[in-house]
Specification:
154 residues, mainly alpha, elongated
Length: 154
């Protein structure tokens, strides 16, 4: 890794971030609801994705917004951008999913499972194994570097 000092924390715009992620998650919810509607047998017609399985849209949007809001609030409060923020956001989103099932044990379980999964994912460096490494640093490591003696001779 680089020997450079850690940069100063840049606060996240909480409401903007939560709104954008909530809308994106809601769009995914529309897609999932449409698939649920298409695969089910019913007489609701094409609007069934809103009337019959529309709760899926609200759940996805709510979980996305809750995740983003909690993640940015925790990051801004702690003034750090690390794995704990993602774990807290995922815990809140998992708790919301359990509350939809009307079960406190499911809510706590969802919090633990999603929080642990997201925290582990963030801690591992987003599956690249190199947390905080920029694309330029990765490029330098990938390509061979000329020997120091040749650089000095030129």
């Amino acid at each position: 890794m680089s020997d450079s000092p850690t940069p100063a924390y840049d606060p996240k715009p909480t409401l903007k971030y939560a709104s954008v992620i909530g809308l994106q998650a809601g769009a995914v919810g529309v897609f999932v609801s449409a698939i649920q509607n298409a695969l089910g047998s019913h007489s609701a017609g094409a609007m069934g994705f809103v009337t019959r399985t529309g709760g899926t849209i609200a759940l996805f949007a709510g979980m996305g917004a809750t995740f983003a809001l909690t993640e940015s609030l925790v990051a801004n409060q702690r003034r750090k951008d690390d794995h704990v923020n993602g774990a807290a956001g995922a815990c809140a989103a998992g708790f919301l999913a359990g509350i939809r099932a009307r079960s406190i044990p499911m809510a706590v379980g969802g919090c633990v499972v999603l929080g642990a999964a997201m925290g582990t994912f963030d801690y591992s460096g987003q599956l690249s194994g190199e947390a905080g490494v920029t694309q330029e640093e990765r490029r330098r490591r990938f390509f061979k570097q000329p020997p120091k003696s040749l650089e000095a001779a030129e």
